[in-house]
Specification:
By secondary structure, the protein is α/β, with parallel strands linked by helices. 33% of the residues lie in helices and 26% in strands. It contains 13 helices and 19 strands. α1 packs parallel to α2, α1 crosses α8 and α9 crosses α13.
Length: 400
């Protein structure tokens, strides 16, 4: 079979060196990659490097190999175009249809999915001109992933850092797998919770659960690849931030509730994949609880945590908002799931059987998605991203 053809556009930012790692991941996973750098990008990484890593010639000018009409053919033949890093200048040119070099010509002729991975200083990313250009590109169907927060050039830190190449690769892989040029979640804002809350007993101990957060992260990555603006509320996962996702770190159920209630009013959909502790200790010991010889420990008194899923399902601020819950069951899975769906008042409930060797920490999952309309959508055992795709398929139908 022919290898999927990917065009890797590289614009002139200091993060251009990171695109080498993205290129390696694309080629090693079986993609035929053509690198199209701008002249400015070659000040950071030379053409010989791109050619050696991709196994294909590198051009920056429309006048190179004129008989092959490269300014038209490269875009026409591509299955995916990804620009990483995408500078503020490149986003502006793409949004306004300028074509003054080979890369911008390629963007104009491409009829395949296009992904931009921005990288720039925080002030440039937040400037109204850049934000309008990003909105224009997203409205036209391009996937513009949110930049990461972290160290920039010099001593500066903030939002504008290029996401890690491994995470950009995951976005590209998901976009290619869908094979559509129009992201169905473009213009949508979604909130996803992930991980497991921890309720502290004392400075060194807590009540927790086995949730790894991998399913929630798969949901966040998939939504970003489908064009959504994603807020991921992560509880104690230790996982790398997905590319193109705004991550809010929390620890306890109360903190998770605060973050969800803050983000939910502006969201088109909320997916509560986090395992939220039902109870927390009634009191917190300021010092470590000591083991005393000949004495049994004092009983731990628990109190209920807030029911976040029921709360946001009942008090919906945004009309047409879709809310999805998760139910981890150990017996009578579907019967208990139906009862929980009715009790919580959400639109969809993902029900799966859990146990010591099931679901938690695994790369795979198996579930049934129950709908408030009486529907049942089984998802066979497979990668967690497959379940994520099914969930977003069902959400987009309800969003209209």
């Amino acid at each position: 079979m022919d290898k999927p053809k990917v065009v890797l556009g590289v614009s002139g930012g200091i993060a251009a060196y990171k695109a080498c790692e993205l290129l390696r991941r694309l080629t090693e996973s079986g993609h035929d990659v053509r690198v199209v750098p701008t002249d400015s990008a070659l000040h950071f990484v030379g053409a010989a490097t791109w050619s050696a890593l991709s196994g294909n010639p590198v051009s920056t000018e429309v006048w190179d190999d004129v008989h092959e009409v490269p300014h038209v053919r490269i875009g026409q033949q591509a299955d995916l175009v990804v620009v990483a890093p995408a500078t503020a200048d490149m986003l502006a040119k793409a949004a306004h249809g300028l074509a003054d070099d080979l890369l911008t010509n390629t963007l104009l002729t491409a009829r395949c999915p296009v992904v931009f991975a921005p990288a720039m200083h925080t002030e440039m990313w937040e400037h109204p001109a850049t934000q309008e250009n990003v909105a224009t590109l997203r409205r036209r169907g391009a996937v513009v992933i949110e930049p990461a927060v972290g160290r920039l050039t010099g001593v500066d830190t903030g939002k504008g850092r290029l996401p890690e190449p491994a995470e950009i690769f995951e976005v590209c892989r998901r976009v290619l797998a869908r094979g559509v040029t129009e992201p169905d979640l473009k213009g949508r804002h979604v909130v996803v919770s992930a991980g497991g809350t921890r309720e502290p007993l004392d400075p060194v101990r807590f009540l927790g659960n086995r949730s790894s957060g991998k399913q929630g992260y798969a949901l966040a990555r998939t939504a970003a690849a489908r064009g959504a603006r994603v807020t991921l509320i992560a509880a104690n996962t230790g996982l790398p931030d997905p590319a193109g996702v705004d991550v809010v770190q929390v620890g306890t159920a109360v903190q998770l509730r605060e973050a969800v209630l803050k983000a939910a009013p502006e969201a088109d959909a909320v997916v509560m994949a986090a395992a939220v502790a039902d109870f927390r200790p009634a009191t917190y010991a300021a010092g470590k609880i000591k083991k005393r010889d000949g004495q049994e420990p004092e009983p731990i008194v628990l109190v209920r945590n807030p029911d976040i899923l029921a709360e946001i399902s009942t008090d919906r601020v945004r009309p047409g908002q879709v809310i999805v819950g998760f139910a981890a069951e150990t017996d009578d899975v579907l019967a208990n799931g139906r009862k929980k769906l009715e009790r919580k008042g959400c639109d969809l409930l993902v029900v799966n059987e859990v146990g010591e060797r099931k679901t938690f920490g695994s790369e795979e999952n198996e579930a049934v998605v129950l709908g408030a309309d009486g529907s049942e959508t089984p998802v066979p055992h497979g990668p967690k991203e497959a379940l994520a795709e099914t969930v977003w398929d069902l959400v987009t139908r309800r969003l209209g």
